[in-house]
Records
---
Amino acid sequence: MATAQMPGAPAAGSDVHELASFGYKQELDRSLGFFSSFAAGFSYISILTGVFELFGFGFLNAGPAVWWSWIVVFVGQMAVALCFAEMAGQFPLAGSTYQWSKRIGTDAVSWMTGWVLIIGSLVTVAAVAVAWQVVLPQVSTFFQFVGHTSDAGTYSTAGGAQNALLLGAILVVFGTIISMLGVRTMARINNFGVFAELIGSVVLVVLLLFHINRGPGVVTDTLGTGAGHSWGYFGAFLVGGIMSAYVMYGFDTAGTLAEETNEPRRNAPPAILRALAAAALIGGVLILLAMMDVKNIHDKNIGLLGLPYIVKQALGSTAGNVFLIDSAIAITVCTLAVMTGCIRMLFSMARDGRLPFGSTIAHVSGKRKVPIVPALFVGILSLALLAVNIANQSAFVALTGVAIIMFYLPYLGVTGSMLWRRLRGDWPRPEHGPYFSLGRWGLVVNVVAVVYGSLIAFQIAWPRAAVYGAKWYFRFGAYEFIGATVVIGAVYYWFVQRRKGDQVVAEHRADESQFSISRPALGEVAP
């Protein structure tokens, strides 16, 4: 869709003027094209990270029929992505979900959306970084620096946890350095990683086609995993299906780089949708073929070692190692994408004066136009969280599971606020313009997004021993950790932030008189 001038908006084609219409001056390096925007969302989802790391969990708990959860999650998340695409076309701003909820929701909702997502992102950085332990020691025991070779491919044993901490720390330090070198350097590395992941995934799918041992009907096999569940196989399916919910999120990152993307109103919406669609298609086919290829569907190693085991069994150790290396590259750029999203969220909130020391945090320094303080903040806190993995592996596993919910809740902050506006007749706006629009399907898609988001958050948070461990304080970890996060955020908002309102820090504020543009107030829809 071509960008066109909207009533009361800056001249078409001027991204700087367009940004000024929201009250901000151009500070970040606007140099990214469409592929870089797409790559940011695709690398965050990262099929070769999520599926390689979590396939074993899904298969162990729900058998081959767990594949259907991939379809369910894709449909729900596509409804969310469609809502986000509409938001990205209207509000092309760094910080995506925070900024979107700010423009259509209440002050409290926007604050909590940003706050919860920051905490969730920090935990996710650590969770993705330790995934190197799942693949690299299986490529070569050289990467098992600490512990024994039997710890390879796991971070749930003492030696595995120690080695995962070391490998994860190396990856976090690398990501922090790249983030500080500027968005162009980050984009080059991310684009290369996504290109490698796309090529590797397609080649892997093609090769698996030549090693099929059974038909696609395998996805109806439950392997008796429903035994012992009070809800039968449906209970097992809910547990195993968490695999899919853990993988398909983060596509909004294509929108969070809007202030660094050329023509973001035109490029960001399709980038969000294509990132999710491409990841879902490749991942769905890959999971299906893996189960069709395995020699013995009852092999216990499938649940223990996951997809790397199946790939090596089907293609041999040499070819299998090549794809494990490709997976390691995907994990690297996924970590970089998560860090990038968190850094932009910190920058965006601090620029609005919604974080302590906002001016310092939002400062953009050097020719590379990088918010240095957020990059260091994300790196240091991620390293601290990695230490939890060596101190208590059960706590780390529970914490990373909870972090996923801390994305679904902020997503509800956007889709819920949008639905509220729709029901009031305030959305879409009269000046919506030619940018991405759901049209007459908007209400239906929006309702599906809200219902799905609510159910999936509840589903992941449900206190199951199979997910969070037998101890009660781990099983209820979602309610404890998220509850504490919400309480802390609410207290800060009530006593500090509520009185400030929408106060863009002076050095980040655009000279609105220069552009003669009015913009919507916080939580208001522009007339």
Note: The chain is about 65% helix and 0% strand.
---
Amino acid sequence: MSYLVLARKSRPQCFAEVIGQRAAVRTLQNALVQNRVPHAILFSGVRGTGKTTLARIMAKALNCTDRQGPEPCNQCLSCQEINAGASVDLQEVDGASNRGIQEIRELKERIRFQPSSSRYKIFIIDEVHMLTTEAFNALLKTLEEPPEHVYFMFATTELHKLPLTILSRCQRYELKRLSRQELHNHFAALAHKEEVSISAAALDIVAREAAGSVRDGLSLLDQLFSYCGQSVDQEDVLDVLGLVSRESVANLGIALLRADLASALELVDALHIQGADVKRLGNDLLQWLRELLLCKLGPKTAAMLMLPEDELIAMQELAAPYNQEQLAALFNLLMDALEQSVHSREPRLALEMACIRAVQVADITPTAELIERFNSLLGDTPLVAQTPPVQTPAPPARPAPLAVEKKNLPKMPPEQSAEPASKPLPPGEQGHDAAGTDSNATINTTGSLRPPQTADSAAGGAQAPSLQRTKKVESTAKQTANKQSRATSSPPAARESVQLRVQRDWDRFVHHVQEQLRWMGLALQQALSVRVETDKLIVLFRSSDDCHMLTQQDNLRKLTEFALDFFQDSLQVCIEEELSQSCEINPLTGRTPLEEPNALASDPMVQTALEVFSGQLGDIRIGTRYKEAIMEQDEEDLACLPIEDDD
């Protein structure tokens, strides 16, 4: 007999031999014991996870004559025929090559007949997603209500390609990828059974390359056993599979973390000379960085790696000097570079450029550190207090107060004390004196209150009543004028701020409107200018043709709501047109000069000419000056024509 590969030789023959898939195996076993086996079972999952194997074991268990519990005996005639692939009542159909409606019709014809020697007639359709839509439709009724002696078992690697009508008629079992540890243990047992000595490091590489698929790992083991004979080492695995050693990948990653660009490029060049796949090298480097980042996050995430204890400790020590932001930035940078190398004719150049950019990651300052630096510079002062105040016009000049000695200043009574002038006044008191302030006081440049400073008061003399009343009126008038100037200077500054924000963010506002209502955003793109006057946002258009829809009441209300939401300011949107009343209407066309270009552009003859000649509309020029230039050009062209003799 010819040699059987490990994937066929080690195929499980009962549920106990199936590795992994505990949920699916336990459900099937309980269904057999309780006699609750559905008539249609669908196995899905990636390649090599045991879909067809479970279907065959289930078929043996259903037709086994000596079954004790859920396990088939593998000794009766039915089990032996199924193991040998000679059972007439078990038919395996390849959905990829028998995918048409005619093959399904023939299958339905065979369904009508009773099983020849077994208890049930079982149909296993592999890669069932390859069937055509017509074939699925032809199978629907039979799949929903099959005869009592028929069971269907489907297997697919692409569950999303099956119609919902098929999925609703089947009991689904989604098989998962096997963990690396499960594959490692299974491959070690098979190597011991084959009397082959293989190191743990080599088994780790094979389990990693299998990527959760048992069949892929068994194919790699077959290849290694043929190459190495009775002893397999890590170097043999790297040579046979064309892989890069984990040590080389780690050295490259350490060079990038230490910003040693020369060493990184030398390693890439040496690995390229050895024949390493550059794309695979990038993937291995990404995997190594992922492990380093998981080690940095803590012991719970590090447990996900399933690394040896000594290697795990080394990775944790290596990740200690670096922060999470640097490792994540390096990971994202290399991932973007790998995306470029997939479509590049020279993947090595893409990887080298990624190394050049990766060494700059060490210069990145984390956001938390920047915030801490700002806090240290600001001290205990909140960030809002550092914002510069809005510049307002200076108040009118006033006479400087006379200099007086401190000792001669009269004491302020308690009810005459006042807040500093920098504190804003309530709206109702903008034109009046502050509460509790003597009207006889004036405000100096520092904002403190002082009594009137005169030579007589400095000398201690009493002022005349008429002079006191005069100074009271002057002081009150000055205070009122200063307060009114501050009150009236604020709104223009605020309006100026809104105007600047509108001018700066107008394109973003148009994009925001376009996301809400596409036609309205496109219409706003035709605006000539925009300005703010008091509480109005005025949008200027060339003509009514560009803003006809916007002037409607409902649309204008929506546009105002968008402006309030975006600018967060009380603005009423107004639409204006550039057409001036001074433009005379042409009696022949009934249009103004500003309306003439748009009317000419939409003329049916112009549109027909553009469509016939596949042209584009350029400048439209009108007016007497342009017409005179055209007439002069025509006269020059006529003068250049030869004169023909009448004879």
Note: Residues 381-478, 480-490 have pLDDT under 50 and may be disordered.
---
Amino acid sequence: MGVDAAQKELALYGGTPARTRPDPPMFPGGMEIGEEERQAVLDVLESKNLFRYYGVTDRPSKVAQFEQAFARHMGAKYALGVTSGTAALHTGLVALGIGPGDEVIVPAYTFIASAAAVIAANAIPIIAEVDDSLTLDPADVERKITPYTKAIMPVHMRGAPCDMDAIMALARRRNLLVIEDVAQSDGGSYKGKRLGTFGDVGCFSLQYHKIITSGEGGVVLTDDKRLYDRARMFHDSAGAWRRGEQSTVEPFTGGTNYRMSEITGALALAQLGKLEDLLARMRRNKRIIREGIADLAQIQLRRLHDPEGDTGICLIFFVENGERAKLVAEALRAERVSAGSMYDEGVPDWHIYRHWTHILHKRTATPTGCPFTCPFYKGKAEYSEDMCPRTLELLGRAVHLNVSPLLTEQDCEETVAAIRKVAEALL
């Protein structure tokens, strides 16, 4: 195929890149680690109190301080610090009483931990389509409900809120629990209400790639004291209380150890103070880029259920097909814009259900095959690589751009120029 005049301008074919510098690393909170975090960790080390419940001196727990500040910031009554976002999901599911015989509906586009946590709770993940927001499609959720469905797990993917009006209305109508996975959307909102506060439980991640980070870590959020106590018990080796904190529920067995350390709590508390500034900068940068390409007929921007509540961590648009998406992403990278196509059959991306091979084939740690073969489970979960064709079609023609809080206005304007340049030449 020949190269026309517009294509010759592309950096991919020898032209000058639109960006004068490449994107910075996309670790929003990680790139902000500085004196506040250093001092927070030193305070813990100097105290010699590395465990939240006791130590050599009587001083307030950093984890407890973080939990209180996080709950207050998000507008919830209770927050529980745990070791990871996956631990938050597992703990939240157990707190909700989800277990053998239950089904939980999860989206086909989410990190594998969403489904794996359901299995860890001895329940069955039922995989549903996403729509052009790349979040859970409420219509397909309703189609997937069975007599064994216990809960819905909306996942606020790539920084954007799910359609929580539709999901909560469906949950109320069908008497289902809701556990929100907010791992990729810390601080986001939907119609002015923080994500993680719509469902019975909200689960957050503080892993290094997330908006704010303590390296690893997570949070369980709820307004329900009973659920909070059940979560607290499960995450602390089935312990019923600590330091005289009485539980409102009867003790139960089967707890684990997902306790957050004081160093993690100190880092998380310092990072929480930076959350709103990070969100403001990413939202500003995304707004510049979005407005600069809004008139391009060749692309379809990802639909946002609430543009104001979007965290702004990325920009996603759709082109005509998967082959074109890969070419556009390659061309943008040549222009020094961090871009990628979102689905490649040859790459095991754990965010796409088709790559969850061990789940699709129901491979378990023991030959008994539980929870899929559990005698309490009366349903029939069937999985296949092509079970969610709409999800694969959308991801196949999607192009993803990171939107770092470290981008300058010039970076954003040059990114607009790069997208327009590539769209004119290739679409």
Note: The first strand starts at residue 78 and ends at 82.
---
Amino acid sequence: MKFKKNNLKRGIISNLSSVGYMPRWIVLAVDLVLCTLAFYLAYFLVLKLYYNIPQYQEVAVETRLLVTLFCQTVFFFVFQTFAGILRYSTYADALKLAMSVLATLIVLFIIHYAWYFLFGVRFFLGVGLLVYGVLAFLFLFLLRLIVKVTFDYFVVSVGQVIPVLIYGAKTAGVSIGKMLHSTTESKYKLIGFIDDSKSANKMQILGCPVYLRSDERKLKEVFKKKQIRAVIFSPWKMKDIKSTKELDFFLNNQVSVLTAPLIESYEDRLDEDKLKKSLKKIKSIQIEDLLNRRQITINQDNIAKQITGKVVLISGAAGSIGSEIARQITSFNPKMLVLVDQAESPLHNLRLEMEEKFPDLCFTVFIGDVRNYERMEALMQTYRPDIVYHAAAYKHVPLMEDNPSESILTNVLGTKNMADLSVKYNVSSFVMVSTDKAVNPTNVMGGSKRIAEIYVQSLFNKLVKENSACTQFITTRFGNVLGSNGSVIPLFRQQIEKGGPLTVTHPDIIRYFMTIPEACLLVLEAGSMGKGGEILIFDMGEPVKIVDLARRMIQLAGFVPDVDIAIKFTGLRPGEKLYEELLLSKENTIPTYHDKIMIAKVCKFDYDTVLPEIMELISLAHDIKDYAVVEKMKKIVPEYISKNSPYEVIDSKNKIYAKIN
């Protein structure tokens, strides 16, 4: 398999990395030997074949050689021609050689004419000097060219150097090319450029040809002949790669797609360390880059007005969403950031990150479980937060299907504790992070989140009747988040690293996706716009077929789906459905001033009616009566219909009971 071959290549590459560079004094010595060879060859060609000048014989040939080598050595030092690494020679090195030889010739001509003027004897022959100059430059240049070509061929053949094309022949593309040429540590070998403009065709940039993008036949020949393994895109060209056709052309020809940092990262005459850092920023295109989504804009002023100078508490702060909310809040200058989680190691890692990246931020970490009312009250009493972002939750559908009681205790009781304490300690705004799985739930996790939504919404509706200045409860609901802990993207990456197979539950399963930063930006925006009692849903864009996602990720990794790495269908997991719902139709939503955020039209519950039902549910969860827990959930949320789950029997029983009555 190609995967195993790549592992073999990595072993060869590790051996090549131990090959050292030739010492400078050896390079200088070899150059002087070549100059000696050029001198004697010029002497033979000019003197023996064409001239017989008695005055010329009066100066010994050895003297002329010593004078020539002395002058040449001086200018080798002046231009540092031996300082470069032969295998990485560039046109700049060739220019140094030419300048050193030319300077030597000028000095030798001066010596020649001065000697002739003083003693009437020819020290050199003018034609001989010119022949020497040509031969010396040719020999010196060929040495470097042969070493470079031999080394490049060898390391390219085993994969140490990656032959690449750069997409774009304008400023950004040329800057990337200059960067690749400017450092000895580049693992990329620039072969040429690709451009859309016909005027660029037949041009040469940095000594490399420019190929026309529309000439796919020619490009395929170049891919094969030059062993092209990657195309580098500047950020300005990334919009071109977002079309499926454009991406497929490269991936179907086993050419990886890389992205480079912004053009501002490239400056003329960067030192070696800066160049190395820039090179490290060249990376493979990520699946997140291919979400054909418009850039999300938020109202910075509204968010700043809400957060600046306030104490902000984030539950579930060590998770993917909670930690990103924390990072984004730092830019709005909160008075204090309180980070709460029960996961010790992730919370410790978050603290280290915040200390490093935000040294001036006032923040604290707090170990605690949202299910523990007394512990959470101690938290609230100590820090008196103005705003609470409640992101603590159990989220994995199959796990919660196996553990309904735990799902209720965390997702429902935990939310109830944080909501009740927010009211008790006069929190101004409580923002709950929910999920699209709460819409017409088919699993325990989605059902538990829907009940949590019901509780906070009904609580607000009761409170606002008594006091309009009460805590504002806002719920945000969105779909799957790319790259979050336990999500499909990290799983696929791990499976690719192991050589596959990639496991997909069903060939037709689809999901909505959003990046973590996108989701958290919208949570902050929603929290600032909400007046209380709303369930705000996010426009997730177009749904993605998971099997297509798997194939694309395999291709982005440089492999061929179903050839190098297989895709295996494992069947729907308990509680899993083929598609998620967001209720985005106009009949079910009310628009807001932000085109990505809508208010869901949902059934409103009376707090005094729903509270006893929820308390009974929590009591059943405490007693670990899983079957009774799910049955009670279905009574609170009638639209909760299990799928691919052992709890489907409850739905069947309810149908029979309904028919009897």
Note: The chain has three domains: 2-154, 161-285, 300-636.
